[in-house]
Structures are given as structure tokens and as C-alpha cells.
């Protein structure tokens, strides 16, 4: 009996030590590189060849192809186990026809989210527009692989990376909203509806919007050069955001950041021409990620075979790293 008691004590001690070791192991800070590696050129390519295919008919706002696009996005979030913040199984924020000007039918934003583990009321938004310009008068389909198929599938891959981290016990401290907006091509309607009419999360709790609109190609200025991105808006409302963005890039990605279009006197006025602007006008810091225009912009020739998938992988990972830092830092970034 004495030997049995000793054996039981030893077993309990070993079990306790093992439990303590496992607990300590789980408390180690997560390495974002582990999850960034789940974002791959092959997965991006596979999704984009579907999303920018003729089946989606150019994804024109309110038209059948756009309805196919939102069902595609919903299916990806359901398969990944990433819920909607609207209601269980309801990923669509309905926008009535009356909200649009002109001959545009009712449409939908697509929303999914991962709830924060420590600061769930503070929201990081990662956005991209799901629509494109549809079918030309001569019957050619505008597939919009770069504009903005590239941004759309980047958001999906980033969401799956954060979900993988959450499954490992490393969910983000702040909540992350994956926001696919409609109606960008006809006047930024989807983002305006979210920001002005029906913000699912209060705008005062929204920390930042990282907006991704065209990140799969190389513009003429950068042909033959290293991987790059144009960044727009990063310093306009929060110098801290700009500095964090620069630090994260140097630490993880080493892209060439081009701020040409961030100039207040930029004649293209890109700062006002994508969905981040509807957050910026509400004093929410933003970064707009953009590869610049090219000969296939808004043409049927914007097809998935012309995407630089290695560049797209690195760019998507960069945005993931930035979102990771903003979601997990102790204090939310400050407005200037």
C-alpha cells in the first residue's frame, strides 16, 4: 500500500508538471509569421480564377453576377468557420434600391468577423469592394481580376490566417471585421451605407480601416523593379499609424512603399476614390493599399492570368502583419 501511495503521488506530480508546462507553452506570444505562411500564392490564384471568371459576369452592382459573388464569399466564410456579426448565418448587409442613384438594383455588403479576446468592442476593419463594372455593350465580360478581385481574395486569405491563429488559442485582442462592400464602382455606395446608415459596430469604436483595392499587378512606373505598393492616407489622421505601418514593413516584408498618390495635391485624387474615404471622413484612420493603374484597368483584359501571384502573396501577408499589430497592441492608435 505504501508503494502504491508513492506511485500515485509521483503520477500526480508528473501530471501537474505536464499541465503547468502546457499552460506555460500556451501562454507564449504567438508568432504572426506562422499564420502569415498560410497565405499562399497558390490559394490566392485558385480563388481568383473562380472569382474573376466569366461565371460571375463582371460582378456589376445589383446584377446576377454580383449575387453569385456574395454567395461565393459567404461559402468561404462558412467553410472557414468565421461567423457573421449580423446574425447567425446572415452575412449580407442589405442595401435597398432607394439608396442608390440611377438605374441600380438593391445590393449587399458581405460581413464576417472574429471577436476580440480582450478588447472585443474595439474594431479593426479590413475592407475591399466585391463589385466590378459588368459586361460591356459589345458583350465582353469585365472580369476585374485586379480591380478588385485581388483585394477581395486577399481579405479572405487574411481572414483564414486570423482564424487559424484563433484555433491555436491566439485570437486577436481586438475584433476584426472583414468587410466586402458593394457599389464601389458606381460611387462608393456600399462603404457609405455601412458608415453613414448602418454601422454594425459603432464608428467611435472603429480603430482603423485597412482598405485593399487592386494589389495584384505592376504599373508601368514599377515594371522590372522590386515588389512595391502605393500607400495612401496612412499619415493623414494618425502619424502613429503611418509609423507602425513602416516598422511592420521593415520587420516582415521589405516592400517599396510609394507615397506618390498620398500627396494632397495628387491630381488623381485617389484618396477620395476608394472605400476607405467613407471611414476617413468620419475621423477613422485608414490605409489604402494600391498597385496603381495599368493598361487593363476597367477593360475586359483585366484577367487572372495577368496577376503577379508572388507579389500578391507578399502584399497580402504585409497587410496581415499590419492588421495583426494593430489588433494586438496594448493601446489603440491615436488620432492626431
Keywords:
336 residues, alpha/beta, Aminopeptidase, eight-stranded mixed sheet, globular, metalloexopeptidase activity, M28_fam, Peptidase family M28, EF_Hand_1_Ca_BS
**What is the highest CATH level, the class?**
Alpha Beta
- What is the CATH superfamily? Zn peptidases
For the sheet with most strands, the description reads:
8 strands, mixed
Q: H/E element string?
A: HHHHEEEHEHEEHEHEH
Separation of the first and last Cα atoms:
72 Å
Cross-sheet strand order for the largest sheet: 1-2-4-3-5-8-6-7
- Summing up helix and strand content along with how strands pair, one would put the structural category as alpha/beta
In helices, the fraction of residues equals 25-40%
Determine the oligomeric state from the structure. Answer: single chain
Measured on Cα atoms, how large is the radius of gyration?
22 Å
- CATH third-tier fold name: Aminopeptidase
Determine the strand fraction and express it as a percent band.
Answer: 15-25%
Average pLDDT level = 93
CATH architecture: 3-Layer(aba) Sandwich
State the domain count: 1
Number of helices in the DSSP assignment: 9
Low-confidence stretches: 4-26
What is the 3D form?
A: globular
Count of strand segments? 8
What does this 3D model show about the protein?
This protein is of the alpha/beta class and 336 residues long. The protein has a single domain (46-328), classed as Zn peptidases (Aminopeptidase, 3-Layer(aba) Sandwich). The protein is 39% helix and 15% strand. The protein is built from 9 helices and 8 strands. The chain has helices at residues 2-27, 32-36, 41-51, 64-80, 145-167, 189-197, 239-253, 277-280, 309-328; strands at residues 92-95, 107-114, 119-129, 174-181, 206-212, 228-232, 256-258, 286-290. An 8-stranded mixed β-sheet has the order 1-2-4-3-5-8-6-7, sandwiched between helices. Helix 3 crosses helix 5 and helix 7 crosses helix 9. The model is unreliable at 4-26 (pLDDT under 50). Pfam families: Peptidase_M28. This is Peptidase family M28. InterPro entries: EF_Hand_1_Ca_BS, M28_fam, Peptidase_M28.
